[in-house]
Amino acid sequence: MSYADLSVLNCDRKTLLEKVGVAVKLGYEVIALDIVHTPSKNATKKKKKQKDSNPQASEGVIKASTLKLTEDELKDLQVDSKRVKILSRVTLNVTDSEQLQYLMSPEVQEYDIVAVRPTSSDIFTKVTKYINLDIIQLEMDKNVKIITPGGLSEGIQKGIHFEIQYGPALRDSSVKKYLISNSQLLASFSKSKNIIISSGSERAIELRGPHDVANLGLLFGLNEAQAKNCVSRSCRSVLLHAEERRALKATVALSSGDLPDDQKWVKDKLSEIHSQDTTGESSPKKRKLE
């Protein structure tokens, strides 16, 4: 059983590499490097009016490729790239429903994992209607009730997972009571389905091993099996959902003709195959068999 921490917060390179190294030593085989971004309310309008002059970022979002660790960095950390997966993740901090338009931007969708952190119950309900995201990160460390049963049900049907982060409670012990009570509410409303637990770590010292995290799940109202799933099987489901999201994006791009020039042959080849199927022509293999 492989374990995952799907939110190791992006920071300066030295600290980031330290966190990755510690996570690997703790037994994690899937680690998502997480960039948190608050899109401007008129980000979509601005994007139409101006060209992106910065190759590293667009509207403040760092390119997903900049999170990729080099072979030398992995070697220094003694990380086996065949065994350990380092993924990119973006978390959109949404304070207004207008910002949800930014979910469709290519800069966001190029990340391995796309997450949204709603700041109100109204935005929470609206974001569960979207299909182009993988995780809804819940602010469990505040005395604010964001979760709605209807939104949870709709999100679960779409394969979206709901994230609890324990890092804030390690940085500020006064929020532990909110973390526990809100997490128990989530477990009750969702019937313990589609829940993952991540660190949201800012420093390496905040990381905890997968078994310790599973024990936290018991405090959140989960049974032992459900708690273990929050750092293993449920995380794997998130990755499968993310793959389906990217595949859907590729299908839409293909059908709309939105392909780079060097990949146009793919659409032409599929059109040729489709033409053969509709005209009843036999493929070379079929003729040989006949």
Mean pLDDT equals: 83
Task: Tell me the number of strands.
Answer: 9
Overall 3D form: globular
- Biggest pleated-sheet summary: 7 strands, parallel
End-to-end C-alpha gap: 48 Å
How many helix segments? 13
Give the oligomer, counting copies of the same chain as homo and different chains as hetero. Answer: single chain
User: Structural class of the helix and strand makeup?
Assistant: alpha/beta
Strand residue percentage: 15-25%
Q: How helical, in percent, are the residues? A: 40-55%
Rg result: 21 Å
Physical arrangement of strands within the biggest beta sheet: 1-2-5-6-7-8-9
The sequence of SSEs as H and E is: EHEHEEHEHEHEHEHHEHHHHH
Q: Which stretches are poorly predicted, pLDDT < 50 over at least 5 residues?
A: 48-58, 262-267, 276-290
Keywords:
290 residues, alpha/beta, seven-stranded parallel β-sheet, two-stranded antiparallel ribbon, 9 strands, 44% helix, disordered C terminus
